[in-house]
């Protein structure tokens, strides 16, 4: 009771809060502003992660299609080299001391993916992929 009368003396206005309790209007506005700001930050972060995901897939789908191309770029601490010709694709990823590698262990694998033969080889600090498609 004393806090409410002190609030009135300070010129605060009140509104109905949760469960019918009276709250100063200032705290309601601050709460709504905080919720809005949090929602905005989450939406912006989500949009950024979707854009990064799309960029990664851009490199993946391009390997199956055509023209002659050579690319070199960095993916975090790793160096990536991509070469493609019509019906062929090669990718080599080198990560110094295996730091940043997205694969684990050492292995070799050969398989078919549709009309293409795929060879993959992984070492601690290097990953190679070669795809050759039948015409």
From TrEMBL:
Domain of life, source organism: Bacteria
Protein name, entry field: Uncharacterized protein
Species, as recorded: Azotobacter chroococcum NCIMB 8003
